[in-house]
Amino acid sequence: MSKKVRVRIAPSPTGDPHVGTAYIGLFNYAFAHHEGGEFILRIEDTDRTRFSSDSEQQIFDAMKWLGLNYSEGPDNGGEYGPYRQSERFNIYKKYALELVEKGEAYYSFETPEELEIMKERQKAMGLPPMYDRRSRNLSKEVIEENLAKGMPYVIRMKMPLEGQTVVEDQLRGKIFFDNDKIDDQVLLKSDGFPTYHLANIVDDHLMGITHVIRAEEWIASTPKHIQLYRAFGWEEPKWYHMPLLRNADKTKISKRKNPVSLNYYKEEGYLKEGLLNFLALMGWSLGGEKEIFTLQEMIDNFSFDRISLGGPVFDLVKLAWVNNQHMRLKDIKDLTDLAIPFIDKQGFDISKFSREKLERMVEISREGTHTLKELAQSLDVFFEDEFTLPVVTEDMNKKERKSVERVLEALASEEGKKSINLFIEKLNNFDEEINEEEIKDILHKLPEELNEGIGKVLMPLRAAITGKSKGPDLYSIISVIGKERTLNRIKNVF
Predict the structure, then answer these.
(1) Phi and psi of 289, rounded to 5°?
(2) Concatenated DSSP letters for 43-73?
(3) 106 forms bridges with which residues in the sheet?
(4) What is the pLDDT of residues 387-433, one digit of tens each?
(5) What phi, psi does 372 have (nearest 5°)?
(6) Which residues contact 363 (CB under 8 A, 6 or more apart)?
(7) Whole-prediction pTM
(8) Which residues are the active-site residues?
(9) DSSP H helical ranges for 1-149
C-alpha cells in the first residue's frame, strides 16, 4: 500500500511574501488535494539576522487570502510540529552528531580567515572555490583536544569522493552529478544553527514528506540532500523541480523588473482566482484551448504530465487578461463586495446609490477593467458630476492627445450642439427614473433624426455627460445617475 501523500512549502520570513511562494504552493496544494493527501506549511527561519515576525504573519495571511489552506503549520499546529525551524534547533544538533558518530560527517575547525585564504588560493589556481577537506581525516585525539580547548567548529557532511549521485527527477528524468565536484557541505554552523541542507532533510523526514515539489534552482543542491538521506539510512522522497518564473528577458523573476510581492497583487485588486489561474498557466495546462479555469478544476484534472518545463514568462499583460476573465465570471454580488473597499479608497460615497445601482455600476465597469482598483477608478463617471474638460498638454502621448482632441472637437461642432439639444428635449419627456431600454431607444434614434453618423451624434453627448471620449455604454451611465444629474452635467459643461 502506498504512503499517503504529504507535501510542503517552506518559505523564509525575510520580507514580503513572494509570488514564487504562491506558485510553488499552488502546485503542492493541487497535487495534495488531487491525491487526497496533506499540504503543510513550514517556516524556515534559521537566518535570524533577516527574520521578521511581521513577514511570517504576512505569509500566513497571503496563503489564506489565496485559499491555499494548509492542514498543518505554525499557526494551526499539527502532530508533526513544531513547524518553525527556530523551535527545532535541539533536533538538528542531535542528528548532526549522529552523523559524526556514524562516520558520515566530521568536525571542521578552520577559522573564517583560513577559509578565505583557501578560497583565494583556489581562485588563483583556476579551481572552483571548495573546502579542501583538511579536517576530514583528523585523528580522534586531535578532535578531542580541539573540542576540549573550546575551539569553534562546524560539522560538515562527508560527500563520496568517487562516482556519481543520480537525481531521479520526476519531471526531468535522471540528472547526474560527479561526487568529487560537490563540496563537503556545512550541516551545523559554529553558532549551533543548522544550515538549510540539514534542517530541510531532517524536517522533511520527520514530517513524513513523500514528494518534494520545489523550484528548479534547488536541483544543484539535490545530490547533497540525497547523500544525506543515504547517510541517515532514510528513504528519499520523490523529486519534482518546477520551472522558474522568469522576466521577459528570461532572467529569474525579480522585483527590479516585475512586482514579486503577493501584497502588491492583493492591494492592486487582483482576484485570488485570477492570480492562481495565471500562476497555474506558468507551468501547467488544463488541456486543449482552455486557459480560464478554477482551482477546483485544476485539482480535479491535476497531472504532472501536463507540466511544461519551458521557462514561463511572468507577463503582466496576460495576468491582466486572465484576471478580467475571472472578474466577468464572478457573481456580481460577490464582486461588488470585493470592490467596495477599493471604491471607498477612491473617496466615492456609495451611500448616494442603492445596492442595486451599485451592483449595476460594477457590472457595467468590469467588462473593460482588469483589477478591482482599476474598476473602482473607472467609476468616476457615476460619482463625479462636476468635472473639468480635458486639455491638450505637451507631455501627452499621441493616443492621449487624440482622445482629448476628439472630446473638444465633438463639443464644439454644430452637429454636437444639435445632438445635445435634441437629447435634452427628449429626456425632459421622461420621469427621473428612466431605464436603460428607454435611453437606448432615444440614443439609437438620434442619428437618424439628425441625419448624421452615429459618432458625430453620440460623441458630443458622451463628452458632455462624462468628460471622456470613451467608456461604458452611455445609456447604462445615464440610467444609473438619473435624468436630473444627467441634465445638470450637460448644463455645467455649457
Answers:
(1) -95, -5
(2) B----TTT--HHHHHHHHHHHHHHT---SBB
(3) 156
(4) 877 777 878 788 878 877 777 777 788 888 899 999 999 999 887 77
(5) -65, -35
(6) 332
(7) 0.91
(8) 255
(9) 19-34, 53-66, 89-102, 112-124, 140-148
